[in-house]
Amino acid sequence: MPSQLGICSISLGRCYAGHSFDHKLDMAAQHGFRGIELFHEDLYDIAEKLPGGGTRENEIEAAKIIRRLCRDRNLTIICLQPFWHYEALVDRQEHAKRIEKLKFWFLLAQTLGTDLIQVPSNYLSAEHVSDDFSLAVSDLQKIADMGLTQNPPIRFVYEAIAWGARCNTWEKSWETVQAVDRSNFGLCFDTFNIAARIYADPTSPTGCTQDCDKAVAESIARLLSTVDVRKIMYVQVVDAQRLAAPLVEGHELYVAEHPARMSWSRACRLFYGETDHGAYLPITAISKAIFQGLGFEGWVSMELFNRRMADEDPAVPQELASRGAAAWAKLVRDMDLKVAGEPEATERAVASL
Question: What is the pTM (predicted TM-score) of this model?
C-alpha cells in the first residue's frame, strides 16, 4: 500500500507529565497523522483513572475508549507495543508469565481493533537472556503460532534494539525472522536502532564508532541484497542528537545500570531531518535503502523518545506533532514517497519546504 504517516502515542507527550491521550490524538489528527502505535503506558494510564484502578477489566474498558477516540479522529491503531523482555529468558517461569500476559494482550488487541503486536528484542542484562539462538527462535515461534489461532489472526513485528542482549542489529533480527519462518511474524526497521549500533557511540567524543561510514555502507549493501521487503511490516524513521560531551560517568544522562545507548536513546532521539536540533545520524542513506532500494510502502512511524516528551508544558503535544509533520514532509520529498490520501496538513508542510 502507499505510505501512510503514523506516530507512537507517547511520542506526543508522556501521560505522567499530564498530557492527556485525547489531546495528543487531536494534535496528531490536526497535523496529518493517519495512525498511532499505541504504547501500553497510555492504555494503562486511562485504565488507572477508571473506578477501581488498573485492573484487567479496566484495561479492556480503556481499550474500548481508545478505539472510539481513534475512530472519531479517523486514526488507525497500527499496533499495540511493546511486548518486551520476552524471548530466550533464562528463567522459564518468567517465560511462562510472559505467555499468560500475551493471552491478555490478544484480548486488548482485539478490543482495540488492531491485529499487530510489536516485540522489541530482549534487552535485559545478559545473565537473564540465553545465548542459545534456537531457544529465542522457539520462543518466538510459540507466540507466532498462538497468534495464528486467534480470530482474526494476530501478527507480530520484531525489532532489533541497539542495546539488545543478543539481538542488536537489523541483520540479527532478519536472521531471526527467517528462522521463525511464520507468515504472521515480520520485521520493524527502525532507522535509529540501525544507526545507533553501527554508526553512533554516545560514549565517544565524536559521537561515532570507528569506521562508521564504512560500516553503514556495508550494512546497506547487505540489506539491499538479502532482505525480502514483504517481511517488513512497518518502518520507524528517527534520528538523534549528537551529544556535546561523551555519555560517561558524570554526564547528566549517565545511569550506571543502563547501557549508554539506552540512556541516550531515551533522552535524545529527534525527528527525521532535524539538523537544527543536532541530528547527525545517516538516516537519509538508510531510509533511501529501505524506501527506494527495497521499495517499501506502508506505515511509517515517527517513534520519538526525547526529554521534551516528559515536560509538563501543555504546548508539548502540539509542538511535537508539528515537528513530526514537518519531518514527514521532508521524508516524502527526499524519498519521493507515494502517499496514501495525502492529508492537507502534510501537503502544506511539503509546500513550505
Answer: 0.95
